[in-house]
Amino acid sequence: MQSPLRHGKAALGTTLAGGALAALSQAPERASRLLRHRYPTVAVTGMTGVGKTRLADRLTRRASAQAGDVQDVGSAVMERRTRRNARLRGYRFRVVPGENAATRLGALDEVFHDEPVDGVLHVVAYGHATPRRTAGTSGSAAATREEQLAAELEDWSITAHRVASMAVRRDRPTWLVVAVTKADLFAGDVDAAVRYYSPGSGSPFGDKLDELRALAGGARLSIDVLPVCAQGAGKKSAMTDKDCTDLLGRLELRMAQLCGHV
Ligand SMILES: Nc1nc2c(ncn2[C@@H]2O[C@H](COP(=O)(O)OP(=O)(O)O)[C@@H](O)[C@H]2O)c(=O)[nH]1
Ligand SMILES: [Mg+2]
Q1: pLDDT digit string (tens) for 89-135?
Q2: In a 3-state reduction of DSSP, which class is residue 242?
Q3: CB distance 58 to ligand 1 below 6 Å
């Protein structure tokens, strides 16, 4: 072995360089951990027309298109929205395109596998999804509420599978919030709607959630079901603007708790 004294200078140089390199290579890792802590990523899932874009826009305080402007329903690209607050905390939302989009599978891969999100906001509308306007089709494509509920269930089966495999792969818990939106359209039925989407309720959707929890393991996955309304309640609605704002506030508070922001 060579004497450390004789090569003192060189050895010192190497140590310094090594230390600096190590610090540099750790920096992105640390920065991404900090970013994840302050700006957790949230996948916004759900079938086309349930109100994902509108809800993500409300949650990020982004001015949204006016009610009735449905050109965007069924957007084919993954929409990215970031919410920031004054304390440098917020969320990075990833709105996954609904079932008709060719880009859906890639988007699902991205949020549940390639860059796994911290939490999932799954949007449902109690059978009130707005039908997508398909070019070249005339007349109403209105599906019955039963058909819509069946479609929501089918859509959820696919997403639930992805959520389960993400949850079992990671060491920290995943959260899922089922956002039952468009509550203004069923203002008198909100409790029944929340029950329908709740684990242990015995409903078809509840059964799927029970399956998911069994697959993922209860401690790895938290599930909340919250009613919400992302659009000013109409004149005919039994729900006021204030009711909607309150519901949105409850959803925001719960998400902040789940992300450790409060
Ligand atoms: N009444 C009511 N309509 C809503 C609500 N949220 C969204 N919508 C409407 O539902 C349609 C679909 O919403 P959008 O966010 O584009 O759905 P997405 O396809 O899931 O992104 C749009 O016409 C919205 O104006 C809501 O809370 N209440
Ligand atoms: Mg959309």
Answers
A1: 899 999 999 876 678 989 999 999 999 999 999 999 999 998 876 55
A2: helix
A3: no
Q: In terms of CATH, what superfamily is 40-258?
A: P-loop containing nucleotide triphosphate hydrolases (3.40.50.300)
From CA 153, how far away is CA 138, in angstroms rounded?
A: 27
Q: Where are the beta strands (DSSP E) in 10-156?
A: 41-45, 79-84, 90-95, 119-124
Is the separation of the CB atoms in 175 and 119 below 8 Å? yes
Which residue owns the Cα nearest ligand 1 atom 23? 70
Does any ligand 1 atom lie closer than 6 A to the CB of residue 239?
no
pLDDT in tens, 65-78: 444 444 456 667 88
Radius of gyration of the chain (CA): 23
3-state helix, strand, coil in the chain (%, to 5): 45, 15, 40
Contacts of 98 (CB under 8 A, 6+ apart): 46, 47, 48, 49, 50, 52, 74, 104, 132, 155
The single residue listed with the structure tokens 């998400």 is: 255
Decide: 90 in ligand 1 pocket, CB within 6 A: no
Q: Could you tell me which of 47, 66, 64 has the C-alpha nearest to residue 55?
A: 64
Which tokens is 227 given? 């009613």
Q: How many residues does the chain have?
A: 262
